[in-house]
Each structure stands twice: as C-alpha cells, then as structure tokens.
Write a sequence for this structure.
C-alpha cells in the first residue's frame, strides 16, 4: 500500500470511515457527499491526534446521509440530537478516558426538509452549541412547485393559486439562500456540490476551523426523485454550477465571494432538460428560470452582503 | 469501513440496523483496463458507496459485494479505462 500516494489518495486521508452497504439508491450523491465529509472530519477526530473534538452526527437512521464514524449517533429529530450531544459530553466529563473526548464541534448532517421544518429547534440549538451543519439539499421545494403547476380539474383550478413567474423567482432565491443562513449569523457559510469534490472538502475544512457556527449547503441531485440515469448525477451537479443555477459561494463575515466563477454561463435549459421531473411543468414558465437565475447571479456578483440579497424583493 | 468494524466500535446495533449486500442490485460489473489506467483515483473519489479500493499493485478495483453498478466511475474516468462487463451468473439472458 505504499503506492497509495498517487493524485487523489495523496490529498485525502487513506482510511475509509464511510459504511458501505446502506439503503441508498444507485448513484446517490447524498451518500457521496456524506462520504467526502466524513473523510475530512475523520482527520480532525481527537482519537487520531487532531486539535478539536469533531464528531460526525447525523439526524436520521443509517440511510444515505449518515456519516458512520466510529462514534456515530443517530436521532430522529433535532431535539433528540441535542440530547444525544449533551449526554455524550456529560459522559465524557465523568470518565477521563481517551475514548470519551467531549464533542466540541459536532458535524451534523441534515436533510433540507428537516432544516425547514425544525427551524425553531435549530435556532435554539445554534445559540448554545458550536457546530458545523451540513445540509443535503435535493430540492424538496422544487418538487412542491412542480406539483402545484399541474392543472387541476374544474372548480379546484380557480380556488388554488397556480404557479407564476414570481414563484419561480422565489424558489430559485430561497433554494440558494436558506432562511436559516439569511437570519442567523454564521461565522462561515458556503454552498458546495460533490461534482466539485475538492471545493467541497476545502469548505468543510474551513467550516471546522471557523470559530463559531458554520453552515454548508450541499446540492445533491437525486436520480430517483428527479428522474434521470444514475450515472449522470455528477454531470447534473456540474451543469447546475456552470449554468449559475446553483452558484458555489462562501460567506465570511457576511460578505459573499464566488469560489467558482463561470464567465460564459450556459443556458439553464441544459440543466433542466436532463431531468424528466419537469415534463409536467408548463413550457411557458421555463424562460422564468433563466431570468431568475440571471438576476440572482448578478446580485451575488454586485452586492457584498448575504443579508442584502436575501431581503431583496 | 465495514460492518464488523462498526459493531466492534459499538456504533452500530447488529440487530436493529440492517445492511444490504448489494450484489443482487446489478447485472453488470465494472472492469478496469490496467493498460490504460493511470491510477489517478478519480473513480475511487466518485464512488457513492465506497466500494472501490486500491490493490497492492496500485490499480483500482470494485468490491462487488457493495457495488450497485451505478456507472458513476465510468462516467468520471479520465482515460476511459473502466467498462461494464455483463455478470453472466446474474443475467445469462443478456449474453448474446
């Protein structure tokens, strides 16, 4: 194994902490993102000689997005997760063994849907703890938008609010800047995608080194939900970044900086056309995606702070 | 990391947590052409299941117990040295 020093293995830690054989779909990028994150957090683990106490903790049962560290804990809700961390720290205070080091900066992997639903619990959690939150986003909000755009029969159609261009604009904006990131003051906030793996790894490292709470939003294309071939997951992620639909940026002290700049951005249609979930979406609203993305990308390039972009109407 | 290691560390409950052997998910298996392979490790990096490992020779291979046959390694490969070979024992009707 001395030859384990060529390109990629030279940059990443050798040891594999990711647990194989889990219930994720073919080509699941969520599990790939969890694997990459676990590789970085592993090197910072106190048991292996790191400085701070980082531990990978996920808030769901062992499925796609759990980290599967040697000290992994799973909890169904964020409230339970807070209890798990507190009890672990209390245990480590009682026992002065090397195997029970206190969790100083837990790495928490959560789903985007959990982030939006458990918002109050997360806010309370962030006040007391110092954590890195990795949010795996497979666009649950966009699925809702597509479902709403399906025409309803007879009277229902008049009662329900159908999708218009403003909804598309809001969906694109809220996707890229979640409400938590806009309201809370994170010491480090970034977006990443496993199609650019070294960018993701670098951002997780910076998040671990940041003094306060850190938040990383990871785009995870879902072959089952978005309906495309399993070998195109990373291709779709790359297109999302290069078209400007999901720009990779990082926020340090409230100021936005694009980490990957695409000067000649491709049309968003290239990204949307690969996904068959949009086949019920009205074709007349498709150009609205392009205008929304253009507007958002210009905002990021021009304005300095994240709060200004989030509050812009 | 394998199941046995997790049980040893105490992070996994062997009774309640079930782990799939993904051998029955696929009809094809990835095969590396060692003549073309430059051992860059991009396939190892892009495997969502952590099923690709490095041999003692330095070349990469798939752990067929956990490989689901998604084909991401083939798409990401720089030199195009990976190809899918039909697993005859799994799908004999695919062989022409």
């Amino acid at each position: 194994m001395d030859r384990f020093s060529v390109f990629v293995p030279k940059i990443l830690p050798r040891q594999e902490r990711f647990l194989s054989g889990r219930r994720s779909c073919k080509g699941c990028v969520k599990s790939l993102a969890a694997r990459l994150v676990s590789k970085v957090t592993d090197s910072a683990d106190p048991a292996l000689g790191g400085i701070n106490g980082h531990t990978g903790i996920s808030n769901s049962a062992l499925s796609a997005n759990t980290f599967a560290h040697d000290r992994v804990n799973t909890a169904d809700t964020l409230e339970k997760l807070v209890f798990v961390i507190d009890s672990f720290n209390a245990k480590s205070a009682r026992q002065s063994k090397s195997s029970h080091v206190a969790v100083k900066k837990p790495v928490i992997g959560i789903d985007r849907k959990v982030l939006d639903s458990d918002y109050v619990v997360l806010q309370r959690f962030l006040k007391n703890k110092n954590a890195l939150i990795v949010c795996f986003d497979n666009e649950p909000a966009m699925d809702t938008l597509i479902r709403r755009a399906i025409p309803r029969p007879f009277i229902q159609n008049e009662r329900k609010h159908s999708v218009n261009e403003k909804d598309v604009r809001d969906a694109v904006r809220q996707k890229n800047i979640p409400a938590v990131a806009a309201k809370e003051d994170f010491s480090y906030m970034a977006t990443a995608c496993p199609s650019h793996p070294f960018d993701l790894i670098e951002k997780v490292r910076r998040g671990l080194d940041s003094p306060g709470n850190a938040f990383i939003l990871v785009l995870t294309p879902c072959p089952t939900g978005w309906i495309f071939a399993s070998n195109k997951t990373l291709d779709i992620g790359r297109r999302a970044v290069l078209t400007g639909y999901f720009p990779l940026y990082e926020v340090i002290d409230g100021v936005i900086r694009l980490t990957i700049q695409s000067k000649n951005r491709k049309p968003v249609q290239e990204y949307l056309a690969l996904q068959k979930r949009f086949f019920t979406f009205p074709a007349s609203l498709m150009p609205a995606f392009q205008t929304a993305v253009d507007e958002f990308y210009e905002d990021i390039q021009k304005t300095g702070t994240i709060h200004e972009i989030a509050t812009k109407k | 990391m394998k199941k046995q290691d997790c049980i040893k560390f105490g992070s996994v409950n062997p009774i309640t947590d079930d782990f799939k052997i993904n051998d029955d998910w696929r009809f094809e298996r990835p095969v590396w052409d060692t003549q073309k392979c430059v051992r860059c490790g991009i396939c190892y990096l892009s495997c969502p299941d952590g099923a690709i490992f490095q041999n003692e020779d330095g070349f990469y291979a798939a752990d067929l117990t956990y490989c689901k046959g998604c084909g991401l390694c083939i798409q990401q490969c720089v030199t195009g040295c990976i190809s899918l070979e039909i697993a005859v024992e799994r799908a004999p009707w695919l062989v022409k």
Observations:
- Chain A is about 45% helix and 10% strand.
